[in-house]
Amino acid sequence: MSRVRFLFDEDFNGHIVRGFRRRQPRADTRTVREAGLEGADDPIVLKWAAAHRRLVVSHDCRTMTAAARSRIREGLPMTGLVLFRQDCPVAVAIEELELVSEVTTAEEWHDVIAFLPL
């Protein structure tokens, strides 16, 4: 069972990313920018995430969700997508990500699209 590795989408709230990294310094995190994918379309981001076994974290409930569903329909690897509304409080999002990191495995996220908080 593998630990969850995260890929934060390009427009994901930086306050959440920084707060999560402070609270979980051993978590394996990368942003789209750090991965060299700045400006890449959602299907490219999801393809990269699948190749690098990373769970995508995004605010983009419309186009990212559609791209993830398309990958699943086509039988392509999809290592998971977690979506937060833009207005989700920073502290709540950080706590949710901590739970994902601490109590789930990477394998549990395959082909899953989840909207957090529940």
What does this structure look like?
By secondary structure, the chain is an alpha/beta fold. The chain has one domain. Helices cover 38% and strands 17% of the residues. The chain has 4 helices and 5 strands. The chain has a 5-stranded parallel sheet with strand order 2-1-3-4-5, sandwiched between helices. The longest helix has 14 residues. The chain is globular, with a radius of gyration of 13 Å. The relative contact order is 0.22.
Radius of gyration: 13 Å
Cα(first) to Cα(last) distance is 24 Å
Class by alpha and beta content:
alpha/beta
The total strand number stands at 5
Helix tally equals 4
The portion of residues assigned to helices is: 25-40%
What sequence of helices (H) and strands (E) makes up the elements?
A: EHEHEHEHE
Total domain units:
1
Task: Identify the strand order in the major beta sheet.
Answer: 2-1-3-4-5
The best one-word shape is globular
Q: What percentage of amino acids are in beta strands? A: 15-25%
| Low-confidence parts | none
Mean pLDDT: 97
Q: How would a textbook summarize the main sheet?
A: 5 strands, parallel
Can you give keywords for this protein?
118 residues, single chain, alpha/beta
What is shown here, in short?
The protein is of the alpha/beta class. The chain contains four helices and five strands; from the N terminus they run βαβαβαβαβ.
